[in-house]
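pinging the channel bc i need a second pair of eyes. not urgent but kinda urgent?? the chain im working w is below, pasted from the shared doc
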Amino acid sequence: MPLLFRLLLLATLSPVLSGCSLSYYSQSLGGHLNLISAGQPVDRLIADPASDPDLKAQLTEARAIRAFASERLALPDNRSYRSYVDTGREFVTWAVFATPELSLEVRTWCFPVVGCVPYRGYFSREEAFRFAQGLADAGDDVYVAGIPAYSTLGWTSDPLLNTMFLRGETYLASVVFHELSHQVIYVQGDAAFNEAFAVSVEDSGTVLWLENKGDEAALRRYRLAQRRNADFQDLVAETRAELQAIYTGDRSNADKRAQKRAAIERLRTRYRRLKARKWGGYCGYDAWFSEPINNAKLATIAVYNDLEPAFSRLLELCDGDYQRYYSAVRRIGRLGAAQRREALAKATRCG
């Protein structure tokens, strides 16, 4: 998820911002600068005899992943992810998503230069939940997600964070590939396009990384995780379709609320059936389902995943050549929003 550094700079450049806006920009800028100032070069930490051996092993793997990203995936060869920061916490930022109570339309926040994005990001968990509570008090469905990494789109040298290492080496590779891809292509105001593109690079790049390592066991686990994620996406898509029909119907709001609750309970039931019958009891999604489910939580899944199959198909049309793929995506990205969707869906060749 890109944290747009151009947006943050407005905190110091624009004298016309409201006090509330200035406070938001300031916390973003301050949080990022604190991370940058705490960064330590990866090479130095690896060479330092005093460094923790486990950390040295992790950073050695991260350095290899970083090299692979540029050499094999044609991702930027710059200073990003060549320093390390221990944030001392599980997430580096928290993103607030919101929708109306009876709509799947994600609310957006618009800023000079960068356009509109479907979330508000905070370095402070408390500030994120305080903002979310205000939206909830006004009647919105809200969802706050912990974020392990972010991108400044190449405007600064993004560091490796301890939060990126917490789920293992395969996850680390996925995050690095995803965040670096935001430096390659970013279409102003189209988060669904940007994120699905990044997911396509993340998924394909992680498979190539594991193949390159010759780690067949990890590759099998990753492919299984991809299949389970596809099953999860299908469950959510089915429920979103049900809710869309409910919200556009002509029943009273009270009836729509009751139907909404029933649709979400059907989602939970379908999940339990999927888990028992197809996944052999795998419980990796239990946490997601154990917490409240609302429009905002369901809509975030669409932002990151709805367009990804089309991007992956385009990558195949480009024969896995990432340079050609990026050129093709850039051409599509220059089109208008509606034309972008159509061109991506109907692409039959790489060029």
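so The first helix runs from residue 5 to 13. and The radius of gyration is 21 Å. — does that match what u expected or am i reading it wrong
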